[in-house]
Amino acid sequence: MSGAVDLHCHILPALDDGALDIDDAVGMARQALQDGIAVVCATPHVRHDHDVRAHDVAGHVTALSSALREREVEVEIVPGGEVAETALDGLDDDELRAVSLGGAGGWVLLEPRPGPLGDELGTAVQRLAVRGYGTVVAHPERHAAADAAERLAGVVARGALVQATAADVAQGPAAPFLLELAGRGLIHLLGSDAHSSRAGRPVALRAGLERLATVGRVAPYVDWVARDGPAAILRGERVSAPFVA
Question: Are 36 and 1 in contact (CB under 8 A)?
Fold first, then answer.
């Protein structure tokens, strides 16, 4: 699907556990181009085990964008961050805006703490709302549990959106769980969550979108999932999925 937007990608080189160097980052951008992705939101980890400084992200995005222009790789890179639930309170207002999706000050990609989802996730979503932000909850496939759907439905009712990893929707052991969530209106966005062009998940959304299109509730809105919803998020607009639970 051409013109897609990847909201979750560790493409900035030598910053967290993502791209190792500029060549690796350029390789990831080329993967995106091949898959029909037009915009990649760079989302380095913002958490205690990575020394990512919020105010430096924009400069890293500018440097990578320059390298892509020099190599004629026509993929747009925009700033963001994957903010750990446990790191949220340590960010002041300027820092939080610097790692918001698109740098627009509207949405934060939130990484829940490890293990089953708990009350803390709802509290984090509420704290972000008080600060003027919507929440995109990252990779629910890591938190499969008997009450996961109920927990996600609770934060969606508060205005959060849920972003699954495209490769896990397309295939693998987490796919049935994610497709069940999608059928309940609890998967709204996809991201590659890619970390390198040399190993692991590629910067690709297409296969996940095609699998998501088999879910009756979501099928009419795949363009929204791929492009319209993420683009609005990057502009900082207040949005809700047209198929929410």
Answer: yes
- Is the full-model pTM beyond 0.90? yes
The gap from C-alpha 33 to its chain's centroid, in whole angstroms, comes to 18
Q: Give the residue from 30, 27, 25 showing the smallest Cα distance to 12.
A: 25
> DSSP class of residue 116?
S
d(CA 41, CA 73): 15
Give the three-class secondary structure for 90: helix
Phi-psi region of 132 (alpha: psi -120 to 50; beta: other; left: phi over 0): left
Q: How far is 232 from 227, CA to CA, in rounded Å?
A: 9
Q: Residue 4 has which token pair?
A: 């897609």
Q: What are φ and ψ of residue 118, in 5° steps?
A: -130, -170
Q: For 191-227, write each residue's pLDDT tens digit.
A: 999 999 999 999 999 999 999 999 999 999 999 999 9
Taken in order of first residue, the domains within the chain and their CATH numbers are 4-234 (3.20.20.140)
